[in-house]
């Protein structure tokens, strides 16, 4: 008696299986110019007071809404979009400096008024020192990105160093120098924002940013 044979059904091999396409995401606009603009404008306004260009300290309150909304929230959003674009440097920089401005606004509004006046400069100096350390190592990273970012972060590092030393040593002259360095930082960051918007809108590279090769 002939045994019944169970038919063998060949399973499709991996080579025959259709390739699974990774889901595509629509491109997004470059968030860099927004982040640079938010940082530049807020830095410029605060530096007008730090440099002594505006001597009426009561007017310094104008910095707080800028630090909250433009330097703070807008920059954090730019950082989140840089994560979406897989740009680690931009994501860390914009998110961090956005958080800097948010924390600065909170410090000035809620913390500084309750500190002992004779020792308040130490807290401010420590706050600035921590951001100096962060800025210095981010500056090192820019040496492989572009000349423009290297210039922005180098001058920003000088700004933080001068402001930190001015606060810890209670030297108004150092704070004023830090304010002038901050004004230069703001102008460089504004140029970076302008170049990013213009080059993307005009579809060319007419405004240089001096990228480093390799």
Automatic annotation (TrEMBL):
It comes from the Bacteria. NCBIfam families: AceTr_1. It holds the Pfam family Gpr1_Fun34_YaaH. It comes from Streptomyces caeni. It is a multi-pass membrane protein. Keywords: Membrane, Transmembrane, Transmembrane helix. The chain crosses the membrane at residues 34-54, 61-81, 87-108, 120-140, 146-165, 177-198. Residues 1-23 are annotated as: Disordered. Its main location: membrane. InterPro entries: AceTr (IPR051633), Gpr1/Fun34/SatP-like (IPR000791). Belongs to the acetate uptake transporter (AceTr) (TC 2.A.96) family. It is found in: Membrane. This is Acetate uptake transporter.
